[in-house]
Amino acid sequence: MYKMFSENLKLFFILIVYQAISLFSNFIPKNNNKVLFFSSPDYSDNAKYIYEKMLEMKLNNRLDLIWAVFIKVNVNNVRRRTLKYLYHILTTKYIISTHRVPFWKSKNQKVIFTEHGLPFKATGYLTHTDVINFSLKQRIKLHITSKKIGYILSTSYLHAIILAATWRLSMDKILITGFPRQDALYNEQAKKIASKYSIEKDKFSKLILYVPTFRERDNDDLSRDILSNKKFLKNLKIKNILLVYKPHKNTKISEFVTNFNHPNVIILKDEDFEEGIHLYDFFSVFNLIITDYSSIFYDATLLDIPIIFYVPDLERYSLDRGFIFKPSKWLPGHLTRNQNELLFALNNSFKYDPYKQKRNFIKNIMFDKKSDCSLRVIKTLFHQFLEGT
Asked: Does the pLDDT of residue 238 top 80, yes or no?
């Protein structure tokens, strides 16, 4: 009880500060040529690909493109929580963010919320059901976020409808442009980039990517279930399969995972990536994806990569978070509930592919726009700066 009260008091104080900045910012003239970028981790996801496309189009000659970061990156940036950062948040006209909508945003600023996931897990106002006990903190954050969104990016008309319900937005705030990171899925240098992380396509019969989502309860992504399974690991070795485990950025890495070592397993954390490199830059090298409730499976449908869903905690997760779509009806891949089912699915996924048609169905209704998404976003939002280019 005391902890909850302390957290709510801290949030209340933070909101007062943000509101004060927002009100003060209304009276500060904005630089119509300034764009401030945010992502988590720094310099990643959809915002990164928009930024890189703007550089390619030489829009940095017309616009002041600045990344707000916690750690130094080799691009034009400002360190967050500094006086210089305060200056930029008070004077920027455009804010492009992947994971958060800044609460300090004022009425004379435009926020482009790129989002970072597609709808499967319940989120936003769609989580406000009988099975979800929203805390006061969650309710306040949700309300403020929905009010601060200027535009939000979508991949399809169906996705746009879900976003409208998720954030209680009017449809004119939703831009069906596709996600900019989709462009990276077709990277011709994917094989070369993957080799930097010892993911050698020519050395293994198959490459498998394991990408579990974040679980708030116990901060556990069930990776130990797989990494400690001798039968599963033996199968990888016999068949010369490489498993690349990419933990969620918010998951606390256990001592077991930190000390884990196996010739057929690579653990690839966010801090292992070179600056400017994202998982999507070499996503296409993988032959199979293992996940659970992560919306990354949608990206796999774009490349027609087979998917296995490892979901031993399905009922618990459903109560903790909930789903927009019923997993058994919606997910385009093997739904495995234990280690034996996972191993069986793995051994059979390369022999026959019963979910190809379902993957294609999901792809076509979730992605109206499949490529050139970064360019489409820029043309939509910054068309006035493109004249003469």
From this structure: yes
Cα–Cα nearest to 229, from 268, 267, 265, 269: 265
Tokens 């829009």 label which residue?
Answer: 59
pLDDT digits 0-9 by tens, 303-348: 999 999 999 999 888 887 889 999 999 999 999 999 999 999 999 9
The helix or strand, by DSSP H or E, that contains position 193, with its residue range, turns out to be helix 190-195
Amino acid of residue 23:
L
- Cα four-point dihedral sign 130, 136, 137, 141: positive
Amino acid residing at 79: R
Q: Which domains does the chain have, with CATH numbers?
A: 2-178+371-385 (3.40.50.11820), 188-366 (3.40.50.12580)
The residue with tokens 């116990």 is 218
* β strands within the chain, DSSP E: 31-38, 64-69, 77-79, 92-97, 110-113, 151-154, 174-176, 206-211, 241-245, 265-267, 288-291, 307-310, 334-336
Spatial distance between the Cα atoms of 34 and 57, rounded to a whole number of angstroms: 16
Give the whole-angstrom CA distance, residue 198 versus residue 153.
34
Phi first, then psi, for residue 18 (nearest 5°) are -65, -40
- Name the token pair of 58: 């030489």
How is residue 168 written in tokens? 């209680």
**pTM attached to this predicted model:** 0.92
Determine the straight-line distance between the first and last CA of the chain, rounded to whole angstroms: 59
Pick the closest to residue 215 from 145, 310, 139, 285 (CA basis): 310
The rounded distance, in Å, linking the Cα atoms of 48 and 68 is: 12
pLDDT in tens, 344-383: 999 999 888 999 999 999 999 999 989 999 999 999 999 9
